[in-house]
Design brief:
Elements lengths: L18 H7 L3 H15 L3 H19 L6 E2 L1 H10 L3 H20 L2 H8 L2 H23 L10 H17 L4 H15 L21 H34 L7 H19 L3 E2 L2 H10 L5 H17 L4 H5 L3 H19 L8 H13 L2 H21 L1
Antiparallel strand pairs: 1-2
Helix pairs in contact: 1-12, 1-13, 2-4, 2-15, 3-11, 3-13, 4-10, 5-10, 5-11, 7-10, 7-15, 7-16, 7-17, 8-15, 9-15, 10-11, 10-12, 12-15, 16-17
């Protein structure tokens, strides 16, 4: 019997807790850390609360899906908040809006319908476009570094080479490389360690004002919705089928997971969260194969947030870009690689221009271009 796209396999994947899974769990930190640190600095949201919320959701996600599904900040909301100075209340309003929207499309059954209607080449274009966009973002960070030194382009090139060789030889390289970043901090800015103290967090409920609701929903949630539907639900479910053919995650379950995460956590953490195809690709390439990886990562985030609270922020603000940029680039390359897994060369007629538009603008516009080209090609075939 052929399994439908919106069904979940009856047999559950096993959970493994070992060094390989732990190393793999760090594959997505190149996306998670910079966005959370920037949000805490620009919006004055509680960094400890973000760590605790993300940790709890990592654990819940690992237990629910039993696969290395990442928990990430919502990129469009984070980008608008950082670039345009949204208040913490507006960010919370955007997160709640997204949570409600995702639960609505899940309950009404629209997600499985979208999953069946959207052609595979468009999903590949999303993976390729977002992956290359992450890679370019990493290269932009490198342009600000000096040529030589502890935190330099030279060190970044060496780190990138180590990641590539480690992935090829299946060495657990991401974790020691990530820890090496803290050694660089010790040489570059040792004063950052002085601020780290045992400092239990003080969690507060964030209630958006009326003006913050309007700003958050229009400027934050509206541009985030298509990105979440396409990359954090449809594309990540397709990628889970690529990596784990017997355990492809149902889009309806993925949408419900994203919706519940935000409805439950945004009010006290201020962090709108989602799952992402780029994060899954990065964690898989780094060695993660089961939900045990994200459960261990969640436990680490939870422990750090509870024990050290906001005192960790100065340390992470000084984390060397020579290490972080290669990790971001690694996530991008991993996702872009999956976007190139094409069986029919004709699909590139859709993938190439759609991915180019995503890189130049945003995911929604690339998606629309892909739809138009697909429709045009179908019309040409009918005429013939």
């Amino acid at each position: 019997m052929i399994r439908q796209a919106d069904e979940q396999p009856a047999d559950k994947p096993a959970l493994r807790f070992n060094l390989r899974e732990l190393v793999g769990s760090f594959g997505d930190l190149g996306t998670f850390l910079p966005l959370c640190v920037a949000l805490a600095v620009t919006t004055e949201l509680n960094f400890a609360a973000m760590l605790i919320a993300a940790g709890l959701m990592n654990i819940a996600t690992g237990l629910l899906f039993r696969l290395p599904v990442p928990v990430q900040p919502m990129k469009a909301i984070a980008a608008v908040a950082i670039a345009e100075g949204l208040s913490g209340g507006a960010v919370v309003a955007a997160g709640w809006g997204m949570g409600a929207a995702l639960m609505l499309v899940s309950i009404t059954g629209l997600i499985p319908l979208l999953d069946r209607l959207i052609p595979t080449p468009i999903v590949r274009a999303i993976q390729l476009g977002i992956g290359l966009k992450l890679l370019l973002h990493a290269l932009e960070h490198l342009s600000d570094l000096p040529a030589a030194g502890a935190n330099s382009v030279l060190v970044a090139i060496a780190a990138g080479a180590l990641i590539l060789v480690g992935t090829w030889r299946k060495w657990p390289i991401v974790l020691p490389l990530f820890l090496a970043g803290f050694v660089i901090i010790l040489f570059e800015t040792p004063s950052a360690y002085q601020a780290v103290t045992i400092n239990p967090p003080q969690l507060e409920w964030i209630a958006p004002a009326a003006s913050e609701w309007k700003q958050g929903l229009i400027e934050g949630a509206l541009p985030q919705l298509p990105l979440t539907l396409l990359n954090s639900v449809i594309a990540v479910c397709a990628l889970s089928g690529d990596y784990f053919p017997k355990h492809r995650i149902a889009p309806k379950r993925m949408a419900s997971s994203v919706g519940m995460m935000n409805l439950l956590c945004v009010g006290w953490s201020g962090l709108p969260m989602c799952h992402g195809a780029g994060g899954l690709a990065a964690q898989y390439r780094a060695g993660a194969r089961t939900g045990g990886s994200v459960i261990m990562l969640g436990a680490i985030k939870l422990a750090l947030g509870i024990a050290f609270g906001v005192s960790l922020l100065p340390l992470l603000q000084n984390y060397p870009m020579a290490i972080l940029a290669p990790l971001i680039g690694f996530a991008g390359i991993s996702l872009a690689y999956n976007g190139c897994l094409v069986k029919n060369p004709r699909d590139w007629l859709v993938i190439s221009p759609s991915a180019a538009v995503i890189i130049a603008t945003q995911t929604l516009y690339g998606f629309l271009v892909g739809i138009l080209i697909t429709a045009a090609l179908a019309a040409l075939c009918v005429k013939r």
